[in-house]
Amino acid sequence: MSFTELLLETAYKKKQLVMNKLKYADNIVIWGTGIAAGIVYDKFKELKKDIKFFVESSQSVPKQKFKDKAVKDITDIVPSDFVIIAANFNYAIHKKLEAAGIENYMYLDPHWFKNAGMDSFDRFECLLRENEGKINQAYELLEDPKSRKSFQNVLLHRAVHDITLLEEIYEEPAYFGNDVIGAVDGVFVDCGAFQGDTLQQFLSQGRTEYKYYAIEPEEYNYGKLVDYCRKCNVENVVCLNLGVWDKKEKLYFCGEQGADTGKILPEGSASQIVINADTIDHIVGGENVNFIKMDIEGAEINALLGGMRVIQQNRPALAVSAYHELEHLWEIPLLLKSFYRGYRIYFRHHSWNMSDTLCYAIADK
């Protein structure tokens, strides 16, 4: 039985367990009062499932309301309640519940709940069966057991939204300074520089000889990035207000907050703004690039194609976000391997939800 066949068999069994829990759940309590809890609550409301109340870890103020329900504490939960945990698993809420004698609980990924929906399993199964050969090929080329475990668990999570699958593979930090890529220096190309968070991580290494391309298309984030560099008197950083693409052109970009934030949109889409985009090959010219990082909301395939010359000539280390589209989980490693057969491919997951799954490529020297 192939990896994909085994994956689908496991996913189906897990899906039945999860769906049965949700289908027959009564006396539902949601742990959390943040954005995640709000997303979960709204979805249950759509499903005509009533919520008893919300719970917060520390109730230092008189009992209040969130949405239209009361906010209580753990002492108000009874053993017959079903607790949906809409919180980072690092907070170990389940241990608090178990210590209080509450064993009927489940972590639920609000990102999945919001973006995929309760009927996504059939679409997931269809897509995996259509791409079985590519998925098996991507799995086989992964370099180490941790990569294969990460690849498997991320795919299973997409099928059944069981957040404990991510707890098993979660680690920090992302991009570099981890067990795949240690310290980095030289010419660094940061695609999706945001407000300079990765730049700050890079500078904290104390490197003195480097050149850093910080590329950010969203105008507000770009302004914050430039302000940071100016205030901190950062040297050797080239800030560019650009999108990264497979050719030089104008693109339609979602700059508003929401599910499509930061994504390239078709012309005529709502909330679109026009941005300039260029290729890595053109942006860096003849630089000998050492490291490329990408987190560009689903544009990674196009951006990699636009950097193929640099990648093939320089063979830089790569840290590429592979989670924005399900197909990217296998398409990105296969594409990187096609650029240079000597790349060693790794997978790591760096978030408590479906975000921040990275495909790493390290060249044999």
Structure in words:
With 365 residues, the chain is α/β, with parallel strands linked by helices. Helices cover 38% and strands 22% of the residues. The chain contains 14 helices and 17 strands. The chain has helices at residues 3-23, 35-46, 93-99, 110-115, 120-130, 132-141, 145-160, 164-167, 197-203, 219-231, 280-284, 300-305, 308-314, 328-339; strands at residues 28-31, 51-55, 65-66, 69-72, 82-85, 105-107, 186-191, 210-215, 237-240, 243-244, 249-254, 264-265, 272-278, 289-294, 317-321, 343-349, 357-363. A seven-stranded mixed sheet has the order 9-8-7-14-15-17-16, sandwiched between helices. Helix 1 packs antiparallel against helix 5, helix 1 crosses helix 7 (145-160) and helix 6 (132-141) crosses helix 14. It is globular and about 65 Å long. The model has no long low-confidence stretch (mean pLDDT 90).
Low-pLDDT ranges: none
Mean pLDDT: 90
- Going by helix content, strand content and strand pairing, the class is alpha/beta
**Number of helical regions:** 14
**Largest beta sheet: strand ordering:** 9-8-7-14-15-17-16
Tell the overall outline: globular
**Overall strand count:** 17
The level of helicity is 25-40%
Q: What composes the largest sheet?
A: 7 strands, mixed
Topology summary:
Elements: H1 3-23, E1 28-31, H2 35-46, E2 51-55, E3 65-66, E4 69-72, E5 82-85, H3 93-99, E6 105-107, H4 110-115, H5 120-130, H6 132-141, H7 145-160, H8 164-167, E7 186-191, H9 197-203, E8 210-215, H10 219-231, E9 237-240, E10 243-244, E11 249-254, E12 264-265, E13 272-278, H11 280-284, E14 289-294, H12 300-305, H13 308-314, E15 317-321, H14 328-339, E16 343-349, E17 357-363
Helix pairs in contact: 1-5, 1-7, 6-14
